[in-house]
Design brief:
- There is one protein chain.
- The protein has eleven helices and 57 strands.
- The chain is α+β, with helices and mostly antiparallel strands and 1068 residues long.
- Among the domains are: 36-157, no CATH class; 340-442, no CATH class; 447-529, Thrombin, subunit H (Beta Barrel), CATH 2.40.10; 546-623 and 631-636, no CATH class; 687-781 and 947-1038, no CATH class.
- α3 (38-47) packs antiparallel against α8 and α5 packs antiparallel against α6 (90-101).
- The longest helix is centred in the N-terminal third of the chain and has 20 residues, at 67-86.
- The protein is globular and about 95 Å long.
């Protein structure tokens, strides 16, 4: 069966499971043999349905396939036999003995005789080996543990235990796309085509031969995630595709006029007001078409000329030009506010008016241009008696109330304020310095976490969300129009928006869920997980065509992403954030400007991105204004970005709704009518962090083992982050694991706790085949499967595949000559392995069929590195000839060859290694003479660093950190350098004395922890392995070097990274 046919089976399995055809699902699993459902297998074993257990197994293996299969069937039939004896059903026991267990007598006759003798005992527990047999339930559980181990170790179940990752309802999406395409090809497309069958291609026939008039693309809502779909034969009208390249994109090109811009995604039909619907973050589905009753019309965008009744499109509105020079680089002024700032918002038209909310409940309005305080309004309850007893009790216990959010209405005439306890206030603004409270609403039970204005049906409304897990919509008289229920955690933020006349609201909650709502009572239309799964805010670009979200996880990881609204997937992830300490980290805030710029506050810096580029443009030092340990407040960016100003503050941003009690430390404020401009302190000069002894960081040394090697030649963390695997020059692999305990609650690798050397009970050691060669002279190689179940390695002999649980050799392949020198699993199929060879070729090997599919030739010397990129669809290889080759990973054609540029006087030879960044847009190239960063799409070098000054020795090895923000590099003189990955500037030097007091000993290999950006391990030339992390007080390896790389004593730092003055030679 072809790979596409195999994938189709998986799509059908997913469809059957979603439609609750449970028996059919498992029947197809068994008949196809593509996916072994361990959960279903466990259920049947616990239930003792032995016939079904064996029938299901038969789709994957037979008794005599191998020793694992034989053991599996033997354990099942033995358990069935013992249960019959325990019930004293001797007739059934004899039947099982003769029909089921007899087959094993040819392999072990003595065991069969012993089993037979159990029939003579009144209680089979009289047999010494079965004396500990408990009841049936416990015996099945114990057996199941053994069966799972056997199944996982059985090669016949390889890659069959994990279902591929698919978007929900993927088969429906593909069918929907097909129908979209068929309708696009119709000569006479009808506005609401009637889809009655999938058995034939769709065509439209105009009634009475009339010419079909063009109509607008329908905007439909999306069903709740997990909701059952109607049958495929449901009688539903059809939605045509929107214009542009996306089949179901809900945003058309900005060139289209507002009258025809649409936001269409296919979605399930729901009752909506005439001419109102909304597209949401959702993939298209076959039943996602509007009902015939809907009054939505469709405008069809067709190539070619326009008929008299067809829409025409004006030229796109030119966007204002901008450059990086427009971005603020220095603090223009600092304002002493007097209380912790929790929220800020610029006036929508008067761009120098800044509204500021405080932790003491007061909001203030500043005229930034004049450095004046226009007004300050303390918190005051208008009518405490009109409030609920719950609110009155809360205020009586703790009268302090903070502001969670301040915002301007779209016309700038109203100010909305959301408080940490129950209330919102609306104030009318009378320029220049007066406000009147027009409305006080007890909006939520608990904190009101966000407030925003919207215009459904052209009526100005207020939208709020709160700790009570609700979103509410209010009119300007304080009357509640809608209540949206569906979140299972406090609602953190809201984002009202509109497309044409279509009004909708996005909301996010503290469990990381994103939902979308129409202004009706039909419930949420989508249910997605936000990156980080905690505090997230969503925001559209100024022109309303692009959707972004920014948030932080509880672990301190920050995420800034752009969404593909047509598919409900992440389109782009912006890099440049640093991990904060868990439990201390605040929530990163962000904003957009001029449809081109994203800005976020983090680490005492304001960071800027071009919306079309994943990589950060620049950082602006906030001169201490943004706290590292709290959430920085980023004011909405003034549309006149050249005048964006910064307020001096020491506070976190919008308090986390989890800690919504308000600020108890500072309650008073003394604002003067005019604010004097404070001169910022002179910035502290940047200093290179130097770690000179083990006391300045955390270092853990792996315990010695009986098979200690002379040197560590390869080093890997397990993908789960709980273990460390080292391959020694003696061809033996050692494994250390961290345990979960009070000292280490996470159970992850850490330099604060020493792990234990792990071996299976059998005492086996993972020893590679050496083919009678000296392993010290061989080129070692190693690769680990994604699920940590298998490790593949070679040391001059055959490639060995080891089971990581048992250390047993599952198989060997590729005997020399030539010897294997580098191994890499294909990212999308663990059965495909790229193997670099001593003779300079690359073999694409299929483990399942034990066959080399193709041989790639392009290098002149042995292969020293291989790296796959799923995004780019390529394999990059590096060799001892200092060449890089780029191959397509489907047809395996060579796209180009790049020679790395060697420093003057250096010959183009030596091991070259390659590694893709986490976003797969950049390639790290490591050679003993240099570190280099390449633009992976063009294979053009961006930065190069050459050993110099205190790091002048040759580079032995280097690796990206897990988030690709850092590069850890080891040197032959024992030094370790930590570089900023974005520019290869040195930020920290770790001296040789930190890892060893014996000068000749130096690190040979570096491995970065898969989840902790500041943790890495080194394998040393004396055979020892060490894990390093910054001290808990530092938390990270130094700070980024300034752009000019200058340091106060006038010396040039060691990290004088260069850009690409002379492009590397590219050969087509």
């Amino acid at each position: 069966m072809s790979s596409l046919s195999r994938e189709l089976v998986f799509l059908i399995l997913q469809f059957l499971d979603e439609e609750k055809f449970k028996e059919t699902v498992h029947k197809l699993e068994q008949e196809s043999g593509f996916f072994f459902n361990m959960k279903y297998f466990e259920e049947k074993v616990h239930a003792g349905e032995w016939d079904e257990v064996e029938k299901y197994l038969s789709g994957f293996t037979k008794v005599d396939d191998n020793r694992y299969s034989m053991k599996i069937f033997f354990e099942i039939r033995k358990q069935k036999y013992l249960e019959a004896l325990d019930r004293h059903d001797r007739a059934k026991a004899v039947d099982i003995l003769v029909k089921d267990l007899k087959v094993f007598s040819t392999f072990n006759e003595e065991l069969y005789k012993e089993i037979t003798q159990l029939l003579t005992l009144e209680n089979f527990r009289e047999n010494e080996q079965l004396s500990k047999y408990g009841d049936t339930k416990s015996a099945r559980s114990i057996m199941l543990v053994e069966l799972k181990k056997l199944i996982e170790a059985n090669p016949l179940f390889r890659e069959k235990l994990v279902f591929p990752t698919l978007k929900a309802s993927r088969l429906r999406t593909l069918i929907n796309q097909s129908l979209n395409w068929q309708h696009q090809l119709c000569k006479n497309p009808r506005p609401n085509p009637d889809i009655k069958t999938l058995f034939t291609d769709h065509t439209c026939t105009p009634p009475n031969g009339a010419r079909a008039s063009p109509v607008s693309v329908p905007l439909a809502a999306v069903p709740k995630a997990g909701a059952a779909y109607p049958p495929l034969t449901a009688h539903t009208p059809f939605q045509p595709p929107p214009p542009g390249p996306s089949l179901a994109g809900w945003m058309v090109n900005a060139a289209a006029s507002s009258s025809v811009q649409s936001a269409a995604v296919a979605a399930a039909s729901i009752p909506v007001p005439p001419n109102q619907a909304v597209s949401m973050l959702k993939r298209p589905t076959i039943t996602d078409y509007q009902s015939a009753e809907s009054e939505q019309l469709m405008k069809r965008l067709r190539p070619g000329g326009h008929g008299v009744d067809e829409a025409t499109y004006p030229a796109p509105i030119p966007q204002p030009a901008w450059s990086v020079d427009d971005l603020p680089r220095t603090v223009a002024c600092s304002l002493s506010h007097g209380s912790n700032v929790t929220s800020m918002d610029f006036h929508p038209t008067r761009h120098t008016l800044l509204l500021v909310g405080s932790a003491n409940g007061e909001f203030t309005l500043y005229e930034i241009g004049l450095r004046e305080t226009l007004l300050s309004k303390p918190f005051k309850i208008r009518d405490i008696n009109a409030c609920s007893p719950q609110f009155q009790n809360a205020v009586a216990k703790d009268p302090s109330i903070s502001i969670n959010q301040v915002t301007w209405s779209p016309d700038g005439e109203l100010i909305g304020v959301a408080f940490t306890k129950h209330l919102i206030h609306l104030h009318a603004y009378q320029p220049p310095n007066e406000t009147t409270t027009v409305l006080e609403i007890e909006a939520h039970s608990g904190g009101v976490n966000d407030i925003a204005f919207s215009r459904p049906n052209k009526q100005l409304c207020v939208v709020t969300c709160g700790d009570d897990k609700l979103i509410k919509v209010w009119d300007m008289h304080g009357q509640k129009l809608f209540t949206f229920e569906g979140h299972e955690a406090p609602v953190y933020s809201i984002c009202p928006h509109h497309k044409e006349s279509i009004q909708f609201i996005f909301s996010t909650s503290l469990d990381g869920k994103i939902k979308a709502w129409l202004y009706d009572n039909m419930g949420s239309r989508v249910d997605y997980d936000a990156p980080g799964k905690w505090c997230t805010t969503m925001l559209y670009s100024a022109d309303g065509t692009r959707l972004f979200s920014c948030g932080t996880s509880k672990e301190g990881d920050s995420y800034l992403v752009e969404w593909n609204e047509s598919e409900g997937s992440i389109k782009r992830t912006y890099s440049g954030f640093r991990k904060k300490s868990a439990g201390v980290a605040g929530v990163v805030q962000f904003d957009t400007a001029q449809n081109h710029i994203l800005a976020a506050g983090e680490d005492n810096q304001i960071k800027f991105w071009d919306v079309d580029n994943n990589n950060m443009l620049i950082c602006t030092d906030a001169e201490g204004g943004l706290p590292v340990s709290g959430a920085p407040v980023v004011a909405s960016i003034s549309p006149n970005i050249g005048r964006m100003d910064h307020l001096d503050r020491n506070s976190p941003a919008k308090p986390s709704p989890i800690l919504n009690g308000g600020d108890t430390a500072s309650r008073s404020i003394d604002i003067k009518p005019r604010i004097s401009e404070e001169k910022p302190d002179k910035a502290k000069p940047w200093e290179l962090m130097e770690v000179l002894n083990p006391q300045q960081c955390r270092v853990a040394t792996m315990p010695e083992t009986p098979d200690q090697t002379r040197k560590v030649v390869r080093l890997l963390y397990t993908n789960s982050g709980v273990g460390l695997l080292a391959l020694g020059s003696n061809a033996i692999q050692r494994l250390w694991k961290w345990s979960r305990n009070e000292q280490n609650p996470s159970g992850k690798a850490t330099a604060s706790v020493v792990p234990h050397h792990w071996q299976p009970n059998s005492g086996l050691v993972m020893t590679n085949d050496t083919a009678d060669t000296n392993p010290e002279e061989a080129v070692p190689c190693i690769a680990l499967s994604k699920n940590d179940s298998y490790v593949m390695s070679a040391c001059g002999g055959k490639v060995s595949l080891f089971n990581m649980m048992t250390f047993k050799v599952m198989t060997t392949f590729m005997p020399p000559p030539p010897a294997s020198t580098f191994l890499a699993f294909h990212p999308q199929d663990n059965n495909i392995i790229a193997i670099g060879m001593e003779d300079s070729t690359i073999h694409i090997y299929n483990v399942r069929v034990d066959e080399v599919k193709t041989r790639l030739k392009g290098h002149q010397k042995r292969i020293t590195g291989l790296a796959f990129s799923t995004n780019l669809g390529v394999l990059v290889s590096s060799g001892a000839d200092a060449q890089l080759c780029v191959w397509t990973n489907d047809t395996w054609e060579k796209k180009r060859t790049v020679s790395i540029q060697m420093p003057a006087g250096k010959t183009p030879s030596g091991d070259t290694r390659v590694q893709f960044s986490s976003d797969q847009s950049h390639l790290l190239v490591v050679h003993e003479t240099q570190l280099a960063i390449y633009d992976a799409s063009k294979m053009e070098r961006i930065y190069q660093w050459i050993p110099q000054d205190t790091l002048s020795a040759s580079i032995s090895h280097a690796s990206y950190s897990c988030n690709s923000q850092l590069v850890f590099a080891a040197f032959t003189d024992g030094n370790i350098g930590v570089f900023d990955a974005e520019n290869l500037r040195l930020r920290c030097r770790i001296a040789p004395s930190v890892i060893n007091s014996n000068p000749p000993v130096h690190p040979l290999v570096v491995a970065a922890h898969p989840h902790e950006p500041n943790q890495f391990a080194v394998g040393l030339s004396d055979g020892s392995v060490k894990v390093l992390e910054p001290s808990e007080s530092e938390g990270k390896w130094g700070t980024p070097a300034p752009a000019d790389n200058g340091i106060p004593n006038g010396k040039m730092p060691a990290s004088s990274a260069t850009s690409n003055p002379a492009a590397d030679q590219i050969q087509r």
